[in-house]
Amino acid sequence: MFLRMVGIIMGSLSDRKVMQEAADMLTELGVAYEMDIVSAHRTPEKMVEYAKTARDRGLKVIVAGAGGAAHLPGMVASLTTLPVIGVPVKSSNSIDGWDSVLSILQMPSGVPVATVALNGARNAGILAAQIIGAFDPIVGGKLTSYKEALKVKVDEMSRELHQSSAI
């Protein structure tokens, strides 16, 4: 049976462009995921069911993106013991994204939500993979390769800078 390890949820289809970056990163690292629209405000029963059954469905981490008041990550975290990574999404009804950032960041004691940068779904995908990679050597190895590739890119940029500025 093919188990999805990460759940990617968002409050609206308009969040998909941002949240797709988490999915793309997980695909690159070989981590299976599922993706769905789960609104804390418009489909609260679906949100409760999603969060409460996530572990039984094989999920290890949930990445939840939300804009505006951004209640989805915190509400999901209140209903599961799985790690939840919140992605604040700059949406049309947000206050330049700050309301989303603060809603996800300022969780009460006992209900943690790891929070990435505004529209930072790529980092959320990496963090989800790192959580899984802490216990899965195959994912851990792919993360090591990914980080090594980042170093190579920086070294290449450094060489390019020095070559273009050499007189």
From TrEMBL:
Pathway: Purine metabolism; IMP biosynthesis via de novo pathway; 5-amino-1-(5-phospho-D-ribosyl)imidazole-4-carboxylate from 5-amino-1-(5-phospho-D-ribosyl)imidazole (N5-CAIR route): step 2/2. Its EC number is 5.4.99.18. Substrate binds at S12, D15, R42. Catalyzes the conversion of N5-carboxyaminoimidazole ribonucleotide (N5-CAIR) to 4-carboxy-5-aminoimidazole ribonucleotide (CAIR). Belongs to the AIR carboxylase family. Class I subfamily. The keyword Cell membrane does not apply. Pfam families: AIRC. The keyword NADP does not apply. Keywords: Isomerase, Purine biosynthesis. InterPro entries: PurE_ClassI, PurE_dom, PurE_prokaryotes. It catalyses: 5-carboxyamino-1-(5-phospho-D-ribosyl)imidazole + H(+) = 5-amino-1-(5-phospho-D-ribosyl)imidazole-4-carboxylate. This is N5-carboxyaminoimidazole ribonucleotide mutase. It comes from Nibrella saemangeumensis. Residues 4-154 form the PurE domain.
